[in-house]
Design a protein that fits this description.
- The chain is of the alpha/beta class.
- The protein folds into 2 domains: about 160 residues, Leucine-rich Repeat Variant; about 280 residues, 3-Layer(aba) Sandwich (Rossmann fold).
- Helix content is about 45%, strand content about 15%.
- α3 packs parallel to α4, α5 runs antiparallel to α6 and α8 runs parallel beside α10.
- It is elongated, with a radius of gyration of 30 Å.
């Protein structure tokens, strides 16, 4: 019986027998096992034994034959592997063939790889790009790669623009990535968010989490049209993008909303807010990361299927909406998450670790919170999770539609700073009573100021800077 140990023994002491086994096993599981367990091939190993397998009827064997040829890094096999890349029907085998050419690290491979840049399979193109980037100091290679800047595939565009057309984000030299403006820490500003946020400097905030007012569903959010509502959110979130630090997160909690019908002769209207706002966010420079589903107990939501319960007629079915979307976005950057993490000292990283139980899926079961003053309150449990999963101790966290300030309190309780804006006076008073007047043993006492005061403070600080 063929074993991994026996294969290793043959590689070292009896290559001839190994070649025989490869060529005489045909299309059977033994050959697949052999090819999968060859591992690193020793010096002097001949890839000729793999050539007949490239004509196998088994896609798996053809794939493994190409993969093992690639381990040799020998450009003697360049023509035969290139032919596979051009003519093979199975896309995985084709991609592996291009990868094999790349692993040869040979200048002779450049013309073949350039030809593969025009392939119709984006993953084949990406393999060719990866191989050619080894030679990007070669002006001819760089020229060919730059032609892909406007390639139809977004991943190809991303790689090329990062390698050749990357735009540096210029963060203020006076402020480190882990720092935030002192005058914004634990501050609540009463006023119009669009007027306030214009006075916030670039790259000031580490995390934003908010639930915007729903379109014409509450008495505090009346808009002339749905488009006007989306335009307003777009204006706010574009400013949030500007003030967010490089590579950090914006998390949006919202859900479709129903506008009741005018009469029995008219239909109600359902607006898919999270889906309609998404394209605007992508256009302004946010990168979509995750969709988290907040699931509420069915008993806590308005019953929509009472009518269907009675008549059971198709087309009349209406499920009870027990979910909201918690959409996770990241400010687009060429830097990986590791860069962000490495900006912090070891102690902060250790102290900020998420210990104990945590959410392992994107479905979070959290009970809603009801309040006589605010009809759409963030649950503390939801805010705590967002704070812990998406920020570090000492970060500045922002909520442009603060409501009663639950997110700010969660930030403060977990040793972060908050910056809140809220236009409704009754919610400001709620924040004053529940957060400001009950804050003890915090690094910076929360304060409430009006928009004009904040503007003057920001102008004075930034002028001095």
């Amino acid at each position: 019986m063929l074993t991994k140990e026996y294969i290793d023994e043959l590689k070292q002491s009896n290559k001839t027998e190994l070649y025989r086994l490869i060529n005489e096993n045909g299309n059977n599981p033994t050959l697949v096992f052999l090819l999968e367990n060859l591992g690193r091939l020793p010096n002097g190993f001949s890839g000729d034994c793999f050539i007949p397998l490239l004509d196998s009827r088994s896609e798996k064997i053809r794939y493994l034959a190409v993969k093992n040829l690639g381990k040799l890094g020998n450009d003697r096999y360049l023509p035969v592997v290139y032919e596979i890349a051009q003519t093979e029907n199975n896309t995985m085998v084709r991609r592996e063939a291009v990868s094999c050419i790349g692993r040869m690290h040979s200048r002779k491979a450049i013309p073949f790889l350039v030809q593969m840049l025009s392939d119709t399979d984006p993953k084949v193109v990406l393999q060719a790009i990866r191989a050619l980037l080894v030679f990007n100091h070669n002006s001819d290679v760089a020229t060919e790669l730059k032609k892909l800047k406007d390639h139809p595939n977004e991943m190809v565009q991303y790689v090329i623009r990062k390698e050749f057309f990357s735009e540096k984000q210029t963060q203020r030299k006076t402020q480190k990535h882990t720092e935030s403006p002192e005058y914004m820490r634990n501050v609540i500003v009463h006023g119009d968010v669009l007027e306030i946020i214009k006075n916030v400097p670039d790259f000031s905030v580490h995390l934003t989490f908010t639930s915007p007012p729903y379109y014409n569903a509450r008495d505090y959010s009346i808009y002339q049209s749905y488009q006007q509502y989306l335009d307003f959110l777009t204006d706010v979130f574009r400013e949030v993008h500007r003030i967010t630090k490089e590579g950090r997160f914006f998390i949006l909690n919202t859900s479709p909303i129903i506008i009741p019908r005018v009469s029995r002769q008219h239909a109600s209207k359902r607006y898919p807010i999270p889906f309609d706002i998404h394209p605007y966010l992508i256009e302004m420079g946010w990168e979509f990361i995750d969709d988290i589903i907040w699931i509420k107990p069915e008993a806590s939501v308005k019953n929509r299927n009472a009518g269907f319960l009675q008549h059971r007629k198709p087309l009349g079915y209406k499920p009870n909406p027990v979910t909201e979307y918690v959409m996770v976005y990241r400010k687009k950057t060429d830097k990986l998450l590791d860069w962000n993490i490495h900006q912090y000292g070891r102690n902060i990283v250790e102290e900020s670790k998420v210990n104990g139980d945590y959410e392992t899926s994107n479905a979070w079961k959290i009970d809603p919170v009801f309040d006589r003053v605010h009809s759409a309150v963030f649950p503390t449990e939801l805010c705590n999770k967002i704070v812990k999963y998406y920020s570090y101790i000492g970060d500045l966290l922002f909520d442009p539609f603060a409501g009663r300030g639950t997110f700010g309190k969660a930030a403060m309780d977990l040793d972060r700073f908050f910056f809140l804006t809220e236009i409704e006076k009754k919610y400001i008073e709620k924040i004053r009573n529940e957060i400001v007047n009950h804050s003890v043993f915090v690094e910076k006492t929360p304060t409430i100021i009006d928009a004009e005061t904040f503007k003057n403070i920001a102008k004075g600080v930034n002028h001095d800077a």
